[in-house]
Fold each of these.
Amino acid sequence: MFSQWFGYEAKRKRLLAKAPPGPLKEYLSVPFPDPATRLNQTPILALDFETTGLDAKTDQILSVGHITIESFEILLASAYHQIICTRGDLKEESVVIHQITDDTKSSGQGAEEVIEKLLQAMAGKVILVHFAQIEKNFLQYTCKKLYGMAPVFPIIDTLVLARKRLDQRTALYSPNDLRLFNLRENFQLPRYRAHNALSDALATAELFLAEIELKQQMKSPRLKSVIL
């Protein structure tokens, strides 16, 4: 884990030296939390995207939701949700899932403005997601288009945490058991509307705290024990 973390920091510094002035350089100028930090002392940003599809190269981020965790408390006042005005008409099957219509997204903000605000919120924090591939790929690809390079960011993935926990049991489980809302049911967490970026970010934050509660003994786990 330490060698991977040093890779994160080394890459952050290399990118910082090359980044053009602006939001990405400002984000990269803030060091990541130390991997030896206890999780209850680590600033975390629970993040979720709704997208027009699953391919970061051909699809777009449609909405962004995030919320901060500090000292194992979810700071509701930090909640942020923003729809992005994407190019082109939305597919009907996509609208059925996320309930964002063409009229709604036409009143959204531009991607550059939303990503700038997101990078400001991410600075100095660890990102928390459920199934990291979506947020990681879309954010890196979008930043590459906007700023000419993709950022590096440390990630905690609640899907990975749950899979490691379930792998330690003798009972079999299915991939469906690793879905966000199925995992929440196991902890008797409340049901929220799915496929809304902010409610999914909040749902991920609550699931994370429930998963960490199982890992805690006398002291809070260290960041290095859960980072990807």
Amino acid sequence: MPHSTDLGIDLGTSNVLIYGRNRGIVFQEPTVIAKNRDNDRIIAIGEEAHRMLGRAPGSIDVYYPFKQTDISQSINFVGAMLLRFVIDTNGKHIINGPHVVMSVPAGLSDSDRRTLISALFESGARRTQIISRPIAAALGADLPIGEPYGEMIVDIGGAATDIAVLSQGRDILWKTENIGGDSFDQAIIKFLRRKHNMLVGEITAEEIKQRIGSAMPRRDRLYLDVTGRDLLTGLPKTLRVTSDEVREAMDEPLIALIQKIHETLAATPAELAADIFDSGIVLSGGGALLDGLADAVSMNLKIACRVADNPQECIARGCGLTMEKYSEYGKYLAASRKRR
């Protein structure tokens, strides 16, 4: 009978990533649920549910529970997700349950956190601990947050961005803004509707962003043939979209994101702000993968900015490091809770 692997879980708004002790990322799937609207029965979770987005009949709701303003209505379904993810990672038959370090969306209430912890225990965890998302992201990005100097991390998720100033292992400032990768997708959808009378779904918009989107002007213009629905005829049509159009479409959320970073810098104590101007801003999260984003932030704020290595893995990796190097990083974890 196999032993369990201790796990670090980044329960993000768009994806869940699980880090196995001394193994790296062992699991990654969308945090999507498909449920029957009439009886709330869960039909699919994760990648299987994600394939149903935009394709399910009206009797089935397919959604990202953590992208909702009030997730309390979905918290039991999130527990079911955790159960499946942990079992997929560790298996059903293990001698000892895993020690789990979990990062959860900012603003989650204490009662919802307790529900998630209970769900982890039900999935087989023997011990659970919580860590601040910015702290986890900074650890995963190899920032020296234990030093008496200021560091800024901007973690760009699907539905939200955490902007934090860290020093001596603490969150000096921490803001969560409702701007993320989804904001750029929605901007592309609105642009194509307004300019070309064509409707595309979220999956198509994300593909456009990833393949030809950029926060800065490109040296060479790129093209992508996109299929959507003609809003005038109601029929499918194919349109060639240019990278210049996509950059124009994303301008509004880009400006809003940079403005929020600027506001945080403006509220930062002078000494810590000076440290950040010396060391620069670090971007993490899947949204940081947008081409040219770090350059756009740097150009507008007149401060160095870089993207962390494997930015989408930073939080999960930071969770895992607290277990692998507990003597060094364990101090950043909330009090431990053990299964009774």
